Amino acid sequence: MPVAQVNGTEIAYEVIGNGEPVLLVAGIGGAGSYFKPNIEAIAAKHQVVLHDHRGTGGSRQDRIIYSVPQMTDDMIALMDELGIEAAHIVGHSTGAAMAHDMALRFPSRIKSAVLYAGWATSDAYFRRCFEVRKRVLQTSGPLHYVKTTPLFLNPPWWVSANIARLEAEEPAAAAALAPTDIMLSRIEAICSYSPGEALRQITCPCLITCSKDDHLTPLFYSERMAKLMPKADTFYFETGGHAVSVVLPDQFNAVVLSYLDAVIAGRKWQAPELTYPEIA
User: Fold this and answer.
1) Residue 44: in which H helix or E strand, if any?
2) 82 lies in which domain range?
3) 233: Cβ contacts below 8 Å, ≥ 6 apart
4) Buried b / exposed e across 215-238, counting CB within 10 Å, b at 16+?
5) Beta bridge partners of residue 237, listed in sequence order
6) 8 A C-beta contact, residue 149 and residue 169
7) Is the N or the C terminus of the chain less surrounded, counting Cβ atoms within 10 Å?
8) What are phi and psi of 93, to 5 degrees?
9) pLDDT tens-place string over residues 258-268
10) How far apart are CA 241 and CA 153, in angstroms?
């Protein structure tokens, strides 16, 4: 990935395809590669922009106090560097928080947002989940953190069906994880991000989406967002956990692409009909 010198740091990024710019923005892990199962389909119709958040992946490992606004500022600076005046944002979890923040502070820079597995309020459940993840990382190290991650991100049926793949990938995933102090600061950043009523001020078209069996940012988090953003569209996958774009990439791509098509054409969005795998 090329590296851009922006906002006093180095941000690794990749641009794929042509058309309307669509930024695929990752969650707490920060690496654009999270969206690997989705890039080809979305880039066939749009210009896809991926980046590794500061401190993660190929970006510089700065020892700073991380925050959602800081992550957003880095993203805006990268857009400036790439000459992108405004873009559609598909944000997963932390990326959804960044999309919120961008829509609130930089409304002219965002054309639409897919708020995927996001939250309006950092509540006791959210903080407890991430406190457990922090403790695993602090006391047991990156490998055990990586081993526990599917328990938070993926539905049980998918973990069972893909255990060989997960175990094979774990050593490399642990080696690629951002340094522990950076990960801890990033976790603190999202636990302190709680926009709540401010979401009422967002005016760009938004799709609020998650899986009904997401147990890291559960369904009622998205339902809370929808109550604060009554003009937003909603779509809830029947299964897929917190990482539905990885678990069910074809279904996720179909929803995102149909939504982008509708927004760009200026017409009302109608959710596509999806089929789901049989779970033995």
Assistant:
1) none
2) 3-120+195-265
3) 205, 206, 207, 208, 259, 269, 271
4) bbbbeebbebbbebbeebbbbbbe
5) 211
6) no
7) C
8) 60, -105
9) 999 999 999 99
10) 6
Is 90 contained in some domain?
Answer: yes
Single-letter amino acid code for the residue at 244: V
173 within a domain of the structure (yes/no): no
% of the chain surpassing 70 pLDDT: 100
What is the pLDDT confidence band of residue 279, given thresholds at 50, 70 and 90? confident
Beta strand 47-51 with 9-16 is antiparallel
C-alpha distance from residue 93 to each of 58, 115, 167, 222 (Å): 20, 8, 24, 11
Q: Which of 130, 82, 149, 75 is nearest to 106 (CA)?
A: 75
The pair of structure tokens assigned to 191 is 């636990």
Q: Domain count of the chain? A: 1
182 assigned to some structural domain: no
Distance CA(173)–CA(31), nearest Å, equals 11
Is 259 in contact with 269 (CB distance < 8 Å)?
A: yes
Return the CATH number at 39: 3.40.50.1820
Query: Tokens 């951002």 identify what position?
Result: 178
Cβ contact 125:215 at 8 Å? no
Q: What does DSSP say about strands 21-25 and 87-92: parallel, antiparallel, or unpaired?
A: parallel
- Amino acid letter, 194: S
- Pairwise CA distance, residues 143 & 78, whole Å: 31
H or E element, residue 213: none
